[in-house]
Design a protein that fits this description.
The structure holds two protein chains of two kinds.
Chain A lengths: L2 E4 L4 E4 L4 E3 L1 E4 L6 E6 L5 E7 L5 E4 L2 E4 L9 E3 L8 E8 L9 E3 L3 E6 L1
Parallel strand pairs in A: 2-12
Antiparallel strand pairs in A: 1-4, 3-9, 5-6, 5-10, 7-8, 8-9, 10-11, 10-12
Chain B lengths: L4 E3 L2 E4 L5 E6 L6 E7 L5 E8 L14 E5 L5 E5 L8 E8 L10 E2 L3 E5 L1
Parallel strand pairs in B: 2-10
Antiparallel strand pairs in B: 1-3, 3-7, 4-5, 4-8, 6-7, 8-9, 8-10
C-alpha cells in the first residue's frame, strides 16, 4: 500500500542554519506530494505541494522537489528562523482519488530553532 | 465560519463510555475527512465523505467507530465503548472537489481525546 517515511525528530538547529528534512514514499501510480506544517497551538496547514515528477514546490523560503527516480520529496530551507519551529509532515495523496485529498502522512518531524 | 471548526477541543472520558466529536467544514466544501493522530505517530486516515456518495470507511479501525454527515454540512465521529488506545487527536479536514484538479484540504485544530 501507499506509505510515507520521513526523518525522525526532533531536530534542533540554530537560527540561519540550513535545514533538510528527508521524506521518501511508496505509492502505486503517480501521487501528489505535500508538506504540511503545524505551528504550536495551531491547526495543520499546507506548506507546499508538487503534483508531478520534477515539480518544485516552494513557500516561505522552503522548497521540495518531486523526485520520482528516488521516490523522495525532501524539504529544504537555506536559512531557518525561530518562527519556523513547528512539526512538519510529509504526505501523499492517494492517486486513485483524483481531485480529492485522501492523504497518507509520515509520522511528523518536530523542528526547534534556537536563537 | 472562516475555517474548519471542531468541538470539543479537549475531551476526557472514562473507558467504556461513548463519545461524539463534531466537525463543521468550510462552507461549500463537499469533501470531508477524518484523521487520527496518536502520540508520536503520523496521521491515520479514518473516513471520507464526498457529497451524497457512499462514504469511504476503509480507515475506521473497528466497528466501535462510526461517522455521519448530513448533506454537505456538519459531521460527527462517534466512538462507542472507548478504550485507552483510542486516546489521540482527531482531526477533521474539508476541501472542494474539482474533477481531476488538485484541491487543497483545510484542517481543523482537532479534538484531543483522552480515555482514562
Amino acid at each position: 500500500g501507499n506509505s510515507v517515511t520521513q526523518m525522525e525528530g526532533p531536530v534542533t538547529l540554530s537560527e540561519e542554519a540550513f535545514l533538510t528534512i528527508n521524506c521518501t514514499y511508496t505509492a502505486t501510480g503517480y501521487p501528489s506530494l505535500f508538506w504540511y506544517v503545524q505551528y504550536p497551538g495551531e491547526g495543520l496547514q499546507l506548506l507546499l505541494k508538487a503534483t508531478k515528477a520534477d515539480d518544485k514546490g516552494s513557500n516561505k523560503g522552503f522548497e521540495a522537489t518531486y523526485r520520482k527516480e528516488t521516490t523522495s520529496f525532501h524539504l529544504e530551507k537555506g536559512s531557518v528562523q525561530v518562527s519556523d519551529s513547528a512539526v512538519y509532515f510529509c504526505a501523499l495523496s492517494d492517486p486513485r482519488f483524483q481531485g480529492a485529498q485522501k492523504l497518507v502522512f509520515g509520522q511528523g518531524t518536530r523542528l526547534t530553532i534556537n536563537p | 465560519g472562516a475555517g474548519v471548526s471542531q468541538s470539543p477541543s479537549n475531551k476526557v472520558t472514562e473507558k467504556g463510555k461513548d463519545v461524539e466529536l463534531r466537525c463543521d467544514p468550510i462552507s461549500g466544501h463537499t469533501a470531508l475527512y477524518w484523521y487520527r493522530q496518536r502520540l508520536g505517530q503520523g496521521l491515520e486516515f479514518l473516513i471520507y465523505f464526498q457529497g451524497n456518495s457512499a462514504p469511504d470507511k476503509s480507515g475506521l479501525p473497528s466497528d466501535r467507530f462510526s461517522a455521519e454527515r448530513t448533506g454537505e454540512s456538519v459531521s460527527t465521529l462517534t466512538i462507542q465503548r472507548t478504550q485507552q488506545e483510542d486516546s489521540a487527536v482527531y482531526l477533521c479536514a474539508s476541501s472542494r472537489v474539482g474533477g481531476t484538479h488538485y484541491t487543497e484540504a483545510f484542517f481543523g485544530q482537532g479534538t484531543r481525546l483522552t480515555v482514562v
